[in-house]
Predict the structure.
Amino acid sequence: MIPVLLIVIPLVSGLLAFLIKQEKSVKTWALLTSIITLVVAILPFALHKASDLQTDVAWLPELGSSFSVTMDGMSKLLCLLTGIAFPGIFIATWNTTYKNPNNFFALMLLMQTGLIGVFVASDALLFYFFWELALIPAYFLCSIWGGERRVAVTFKFFIYTFVGSLLMLVGIIWVYFHTPDHSFAMTSFYKADIPRDQQGWVFWLFFIAFAIKIPLFPLHTWQPDTYEQSPTAVTMVLSGVMVKMGVFGILRWLAPVVPVGLWSWGDTAAWMCVIGMIYGSLLAMQQDDLKRLIAYSSIAHMGLMGLAIFVTSSIGIQGVMVQMFNHGINIIGLWIVVELIERQFHTRKMSELGGLAQNAPGLAIMLVVVALANVALPLTNAFVGEFMMFNGVFGSKSSNYHYIFMVVGLISIILSAIYTLNMIQKVFYGNTNTLTASAHDIRFNEKLVLAILLIGIVVMGVYPKPMIEATRHAVDAIYSTMYVQLPGRK
Amino acid sequence: MNAIVISAVLGVVMMFCGVFTNSKNAIRAVAVIGLLGLTIANVMDMGGYHFFNVSLKGMLTFDTFGLLFNTIAFGSTWIYFLLSGRDMERVGVNVAEYYALIFFVLCGIAIVSSFNSLLMLFLGIEIISIPLYILTGSDKRNLKSNEASLKYFLMGAFSTGLMLMGITLIYGVKGSFNMEVIRMGSTALTPMMTAGLLLLLFSMAFKASAAPFHFWTPDVYDGSPTVFTSFMATIVKAAVFIAFIRLFEGCFGEMHREWQLLIAIIAAATLFIGNITAVFQQSVKRMLAYSSIAQAGFMLFALVAMNKMAKEGLIFYAAAYSLATIGIFAILLKMKDYTFEGFNGLAKRQPVLAATNTIFLLSLAGIPATAGFWAKFYMLSAAVENGHVLWLVIVGVLCAAVSVYYYFRVIQAMYFKEGDNQEIETSGAFKGLLIGIAAIVILLGIFPHWLINQLYSFFYL
């Protein structure tokens, strides 16, 4: 019941939002309904009856596909992330004005529908449906309300992901014909009898789709442009929630379905992740634009999650779960700060800013904490996840290069400290200039959202146990299906 | 049989209509009501009510597949009449004759969806083609229309010649025009059989505008009055594919593996040429011509795969593609400027037109929750199930991604660009109809079996 509600509430409220013309009321409407969604997203953590978390309705019986949604630990966590993200974004961008606000908020809510659908779908065809449906609103949101080069940039983004999705569709159809009962259900997919020599290219069909979404090097080229050109509210969704679709897809639809394919190509994929981590970090150091800096840093962080999956270790996957959530929170926090800066000074260039801490101490504190979480400092939430992931990489039994991965990965963390601290210094410290001399501090609603995020960051960093407990079963289930026991290896 | 007789009679009725009345509204009303009757008669045929008991000597067989397609073709034409009937009246003075010619085409469609003898195939294809030559040239004072008509006629006549030669060669081998006789025992290719098969393949590929026999298509589609392009590019094209698959399954089904690769190569070439060329077009009308070539490439998947899923899929493809394309053409007809720039800023001036157009374009691009997704899904599934042509599947999806480029250019123009305020006249009924079609496209996109199940359940009553 709960997953259906999670899909229906944003869907209906999104469609209704098209009709509300006044700016104030549509904003309130979007905020209210997204808070309701959040409440519903919290419920699964308290409910333990299977019937509450599972719904299965016949959809296309002739094809063996049904409207079947379930929530395991991973879905719960990601739905919660989506649930938190949207009201947070709506409050933080409350003072931003959009032309045609009804369309903007309606599309945002529809995007939420798609995202939640992806996270709860337990039928491959349904998954594909939501996967695409999350993309269409994003396309319109970025193209209508984005920056100067929005149309071309968004188009690149769309084509990129569409190519990936279509390849994945071929993969889904191919696996479908190899399932024992010709069904798209997740359980049938896990039982699919795919010849070992064929798993390699089935792996690539799925992997390209997910790698584009995450994005992994060298398929990342859409990402910095899109993050830069999109309206910040949309960038928050893209980077905070939508890229998690890629990681989620690997864990749910790739690793358990073609474990041998993942095992044989795991090192290649892991190399892509590692190169991306270093590459993203190096580029982030060169940026002057705040949005591009965060975009490249996101490539580095997402690369680490990919790496932890492809070296196949239980603790690493646990780390990915935790980090998927935490990275979402942190990066949304960073974007909120960027949005606040841009709205006040109409620039995102670090070279034009400086000395903000003097006039806007509230903002400065917020940014410093979020930025330190982004570097994965101990006591912040990201530390937990990244520590577990590195632990997993170090102890990997499947990869031949895991020590190298470990070392290179750690270098990228050092680089991330360099560019993050550099950013703090350039924006908040040093001398004020004509632009920043008359800066004022942030408003109450902005403080509220950031403060909640900060509390979350610290609490998760100090006491991550509930999150780990909630996802443990999911991790065990995934790990047991994806680990390939080789003869002669312990 | 109902459909063939009634459509021919209706054609004659329409011709006389022009003699008795000059009122365009009256003529249109007769055509719309007549076509509705024709559709109902065809559905009754499916339900077992045969109006005419003629001994056909095995020349035609009416199976569910063919009748189902007829229903879809007639239904689409009916929607087309409602949407674009008024635009037909602007082409020239002889309105009644245009309707008459379209009814004759429908008669040909009913024949090619049920032929069981190669002679009937030939007749059907000719009955479809000749009225189309006339419709193409119906804008008599327009040079491009004349050129298109002449080009179409010459090339069409040539390909018909090829078809006849192919039929003759096969008759020489088997001594019969009957498809069952031809199929029996034809498991390996003999030289004469090969020549016959190739000639038939070439001529059908020409009619279906598959590469490398597609060169006439853009010029003819571009030159003929837009309202008739809409009809030619959708319903007629789908009918040709039904004939194509019927012919090749009926005659050469036993040696499918022998010619599968050839069709797969044609399909890949069609997809590639259609999609790549469409990218470079400046006129939406010409883009749609190339898009119809590209979609033909996808429909060829059905021939390559030749299984149950492919046949069901082809019917669905025909419906999805026709609905969306008829809708886009109807909107295009209201525009004065056929270039992409002509669509600039349409969303502001005509939100309903822009929104429905977007849904149609998304459907053509194959985005989920539209009918076009299932069309592509069925074709891809059929090819994957076949198992021998996975490379074609990959080519197909990559080309589908290219197609997004030119379909979305229209969306970009409508929503993201500012345009001058050219006046567009639309009536409330027109908008309502467009919304209705868009609703069907989405309904079919969420419950693809709804349409087929409805028709099947009627059949089993």
The two ends of chain B are 19 Å apart (CA to CA). DSSP finds 19 helices and no strands in chain B. Residues 136 and 347 of chain B are 32 Å apart (CA to CA).
